[in-house]
Amino acid sequence: MTGRTKRQAARSLDAMEWELGLHDWAALPCRSCWNAAHVPDELRRLALARTTDAAKPTGIEYHVFQETWATWTAVPVARVLMAGLTRRTLSPAARHAFLDLLWSFVVADDEEIAEACKDVVRTGLGTLYEEVFSGRAIGTAMFAYWLLDDVDEPARVERLLRDARHLLPEDLHPDPPDAAWPGPHPVRPRARHTR
Ligand SMILES: [Zn+2]
Question: Locations of Pro residues compositional bias (predicted)?
């Protein structure tokens, strides 16, 4: 490390940590605990996961959301996830988990919570387009596509399909899976898409 990069590192902040610090988690609801005070550490753990197994959001599922219900804690969690996706060090497994969680939130039954989470996702459209364009992983690209299809303008999503179709799975409209957690080739869970 040169002196200059050292000075830069000393000055730098992590967007995800910054976002975690913005919320009073102990004042937020959890479905299984007294409050959501445990959620930041679970998100930090997920962000460092290197394998699909390690990236299972055991402290989020049944706590912040499950199947189609979600608590309002999903909204600040969505903010943290969007910030986390900008981390260059995030492993493919962690990226997959982050995007899968975001997808679960935007399709929650509670329309108000789902809409609030969509508003959060809209703040990071560039991050989601980059996820597709990067060609890193077809599974994460697909979640990013589904999120964009849900929140961005149709003309832009059509253009995305025209320019980046080769970076997405052949079948973009699979049947909902039986398995609760997707494997290496995730299919679209809890779908309520109509197109
Ligand atoms: Zn809990």
Answer: 177-186
Q: How many whole angstroms from 42 Cα to the centroid of ligand 1?
A: 10
Distance 65 CA to ligand 1 centre (A): 10
Nearest-10 crossing angle of helices 138-151, 111-122: 110
Of 193, 114, 152, give the one whose Cα is nearest residue 144. Answer: 152
- What is the whole-number distance in angstroms between the Cα of residue 173 and the centre of ligand 1? 33
Exposed / middle / buried, residue 84 (Cβ in 10 Å: 0-12, 13-18, 19+): buried
11 to each of 6, 7, 16, 18, 148, how far by Cα in Å? 9, 6, 16, 13, 33
What are the boundaries of each domain within the chain? 15-167
Cα–Cα distance for residue pair 164/161, rounded to 1 Å = 5
**Bridge partners, 50 (sequence order):** none
Tens of pLDDT, residues 111-156? 999 999 999 999 999 999 999 999 999 999 999 999 999 999 999 9
Asked if 63 and 32 count as a contact pair (C-beta separation under 8 A), the reply is yes
State in Å: Cα 191 to ligand 1 middle.
25
Cα 37 to ligand 1 centre (Å): 8
Rounded CA gap, 111 and 100, in Å? 18
Distance from the alpha carbon of residue 71 to the mean position of ligand 1, in angstroms: 11
For CA atoms 172, 178, 179, 180, give the dihedral sign.
positive
